[in-house]
Write a structure and sequence with these properties.
Number of helices: 11
Largest sheet: none
Strand content: under 5%
Distance between the termini: 48 Å
Structural class: mainly alpha
Radius of gyration: 20 Å
Shape: globular
Order of helices and strands: HHHHHHHHHHH
Helix content: over 70%
């Protein structure tokens, strides 16, 4: 019994070591490339500047926005959490494909779930860096701090992060199965969720079919909850619970599709030719 426990502990320690080794590799790539670092903050900063100016204009011309100055800035920052989380998974994986390194990785004892774990961790770091820079700029330029949302911000951030991870894993699975011809989905697929997520407007403003689809998107519950907090209506725990349930489903489906795509790629010897 003791020997069995030691084997389990040793296996877990070795698995964590492999995950940490990949994370270190991705951090070295990020640290030694200023274009990569610039890209992390570039679009979030541009979005904040643009929507901050729009928010300032509408605050003086809209009674609804006047109730919660900075609502558009908060919306764009939270939306970028979803977008950056998804890109953080898919783009880092694509770099392995561009360098044709997948075959080398999986000649080692690395397992598919360890690669996914390292991608999720580096995605979290990339999201914190990119969105964090934009959030600090919003404080400097518009005297609006999204951190004033308090603990609800953690709930919103976590749900959007997990949804972004699920979409990113799904994109990775498609690219594993169909090759780099599907990589454009990394930039396009997340925007299909934007009109139905109610980022800048209530879900009730959507047509009936749009509301029905939005009911299956964790992001729609997050942005409805954000508006409730900013309009001082309180934190809606039922919206938070609905988002969590959907995110668990999304993450399970994404993980299953990734494993199926990985097995198909390995059985067809695509891991060694995945960049071709």
């Amino acid at each position: 019994m003791k020997t069995h426990s030691l084997r389990i502990a040793g296996g877990l320690f070795a698995s964590l070591g492999r995950i940490f080794a990949l994370v270190r590799r991705y951090l070295y790539l990020l640290r030694n490339s200023w274009p990569r670092l610039l890209e992390l903050a570039y679009w979030p900063v541009i979005q904040v500047v643009l929507w901050g100016l729009i928010d300032q204009f509408f605050t003086g011309h809209s009674d609804w926005l006047a109730q919660a100055a900075g609502m558009l800035i908060a919306a764009v920052l939270l939306w970028d959490v979803l977008f950056r989380a998804q890109l953080g998974v898919s783009i880092v994986f694509f770099e392995e494909m561009y360098s044709r390194n997948l075959g080398h990785l999986f000649v080692s004892p690395l397992r598919p779930h360890e690669l996914v774990a390292s991608l999720l961790f580096i995605s979290l770091l990339r999201t914190l860096l990119g969105v964090g820079a934009a959030a600090l700029l919003a404080i400097a330029l518009y005297q609006f701090s999204i951190f004033d949302l308090g603990l609800p911000l953690l709930a919103f951030f976590s749900n959007l992060l997990v949804m972004g991870w699920a979409i990113g894993i799904f994109v990775v699975a498609l690219v594993l199965r169909y090759g780099l011809g599907a990589e454009g989905l990394a930039w396009a697929i997340v925007f299909a969720f934007a009109p139905l997520s109610g980022i800048y407007y209530p879900i009730s403003s959507l047509p009936a079919w749009g509301q029905a689809v939005a009911a299956w998107l964790p992001s729609s519950y997050v942005f409805e909850g954000m508006r409730g907090v900013m309009l001082r209506e309180g934190f809606a725990y039922e919206l938070f619970a609905d988002a969590v349930r959907l995110n668990v489903l999304y993450l399970l489906v994404g993980a299953l599709l990734f494993l199926l795509a990985f097995r198909a790629a390995r059985s067809r010897d695509l891991l060694l030719h995945v960049g071709e």
